[in-house]
Amino acid sequence: MIEISTSSTTTTLVITGDLDLAERDQFPEVTARIVGLRRQLLVIDMCRVTFMDSTGAAFLISLADAGRRRGGATVLRGAADRELFVLEICGALELFRIDTDHRCELGAGALPTSRDAPAPA
């Protein structure tokens, strides 16, 4: 599931579940909505992503590239090492700012993952 919310300067995309080939049919509509909002900052909340393949990575890359062409920035919040690895393998990690300070909260329906662990002291 993908939810979009906005403020005057930011669009936030919250992704829950898998971000993969099976979800690709919704990517064009979501992309069009986000690009149409024309916000300078896109925050992609990945705290509840359970799996991402190269199709999901291509979706995120297209969002980041569209924002960069307009002079904006894309932030990944709550991305686990496995998702960052997929983006790195695709050669696209430099398109994103990584929010290393964010700590995902466990909410209703969220599955605990390694990203929920507190930062080492």
Automatic annotation (TrEMBL):
It holds the Pfam family STAS. Residues 1-84 form the STAS domain. InterPro entries: STAS_dom, STAS_dom_sf. This is STAS domain-containing protein.
